[in-house]
Amino acid sequence: MISRHRDLRTGCSIWQDGPWPHVPYIGLDHDLKVDVAIVGGGISGAMMAESLTGHNLDVAVFDRRPPLCGSTAASTALLQYELDMPLIKLSRRIGAKKAGEAWRRSKLGLESLAVKIRSLDIDCGYERRNSLYLAGNMLSPAQLGQENKARNALGLYGEYVERKFLYEQYGIRANAGLMSWDNIVCNPVRLAAGFLNAAIKRGCALYSPVEIMDVESYTRHFLLKTAQGPRIRTRYVIFSTGYEIPSIVPQKGHAIHSTWALSTKPVKGLPDRFPLVWEAGDPYFYARTTSDRNMIFGGEDEPFSDSEHRDALIPRKQKALERKMRGVFPDLDFETEHVWTGSFGASSTSLPSIGRIPRKKNMYAVMAYGGNGITFSRIAAEMIAARILGYKDPEEALFSFKAR
């Protein structure tokens, strides 16, 4: 077995309460030869497949689960360019130049995702929303002002807002915040389905259930051995396995944690296009609304990945989230409807690891961890596709596994 099995999520997320999008897939009952084998059919694998199809490449996706049944359904889909680690802190960690490049590329990745959603006409509840980053135990109001100046110097414009504005405009109780514009919300399950179906329409095949047990390397190809028996010969291998990290992929700087979230029944009195809300805290909370005015609220992250322990904490974490939600939104009259928990990837710098696995020519991996996972998946699809198609992405070294 090349990667460990994880119980990725428990409970029923808001995305599971409704019509499930259709994605066609087939079983693997014979040996196969393809140009590109993508291992993992979640949001990362879906975007990768869409980026590589249409270039005279025979592309196939392999997943041990049926489509859309991994961690994608647990995502709260606050799609932002702002990284988990504030710019002023990341600059001290990796240098101002690299930190600025990472933040700018995250913004470009978000805009690329927006263009892709529109160009592929993906029906995923896509909306542009503003974001509010609230002062917390990671950044005080004064430090939040410094953060705003640092971002503005990069052209990532925001506005410092005070306690009175936050309460009068949005009913938020916080000391200060940074307002930024044009982030994204969507339904992550329908988003992944849209990318998979676009790839399949162009000739990509999705095989499931397929368990990759081993990879043999040869001079000009790889041979993937499956638990089901058939073997897959391929020129390129891309591991986009989410939080089930293959043993062959370097894991330095990354860890699997646990997170919890809830969603409410529709809430009356919320302003239209309510912003994404998150906190400069560790751990931080995060909140957004749907187009139907359901409030989604999550956080309470803890640095462990044991699913039994994680699931046992659901009742306690629900109460903690509800208590925190009432503290942030004191006037909000809400009733919890869904509660769920899941595995969550964390990075020591808030940056992903994307690119070629060291000492493995033509073998790539995506570790799009952190609160920007879907945005990072978009960047990964661009970077790895560029390399396979004979180009080099300008930020390739910044996110490489060697950078850890």
Q: Would you write up a description of this structure?
A:
This protein is of the alpha+beta class and 404 residues long. 28% of the residues lie in helices and 27% in strands. The chain is built from nine helices and 18 strands. Strands 1, 4, 5, 6, 7, 12, 13, 14, 15 and 16 form a ten-stranded mixed sheet that branches. Strands 2, 3, 8, 9, 10, 11, 17 and 18 form an eight-stranded mixed sheet that branches. Strand 13 and strand 14 (286-289) form a beta hairpin. Helix 1 runs parallel beside helix 6 (188-201) and helix 3 packs across helix 9. The longest helix is centred in the first third of the chain and has 24 residues, at 96-119.
Defining key terms:
single chain, 404 residues, alpha+beta, ten-stranded mixed β-sheet, eight-stranded mixed β-sheet, 9 helices, globular
**Overall 3D geometry?**
globular
Question: H/E element string?
Answer: EEHEEHHEHEHEHEEEEEEEEHHEEEH
- Runs in which pLDDT lies below 50 for 5 or more consecutive residues are none
Distance between the termini: 26 Å
The overall strand count is: 18
Radius of gyration: 21 Å
Mean pLDDT, all residues: 93
SS-derived structural category? alpha+beta
List the total number of helices: 9
- Report the sheet with the most strands, covering strand number, pairing sense and barrel closure: 10 strands, mixed
